[in-house]
Amino acid sequence: MTNKNLDGLIPDAEITDKEKILIETCDEKISDYMVFFKNVEISKALESVSDIISSTNKYIDDMKPWSLAKEGKLNDLKIVLKASLEMIRIISILFYPVMPDSSEKILNALNISLDSEKVLYW
Hints:
By secondary structure, this protein is mostly helical. It has helices at about 1-5, 15-40, 40-65, 65-70, 75-95, 100-110. The protein has one domain (about 1-110): Isoleucyl-tRNA Synthetase, Domain 1 (Orthogonal Bundle). α2 runs antiparallel to α3, α2 packs parallel to α5 (about 75-95) and α5 packs antiparallel against α6. The chain is globular, with a radius of gyration of 15 Å.
């Protein structure tokens, strides 16, 4: 969708309250993940990632980027795609310790390096 509607570029868009809620949920789950991973509670850590995925799926379903694209609401589409791609980036990084090959493929597709200073943050 980003390729088709935005020339494959990750949009620079201002977030709204809906994205702020998604970010807060994500930040809470990242904190949980870090504690669980540090305590070698891997299945609980992965549950935290699953919660982030569920929140992201709900966000995408609620925002309906496919409808935004059809309706030509480019600014709203940019916001939704930016948030969605950020969440995909974060999820990929969180999965990296248990699924390094898959995570790396996703991060490469997004042109993201694991060496980035802001790896887990927006």
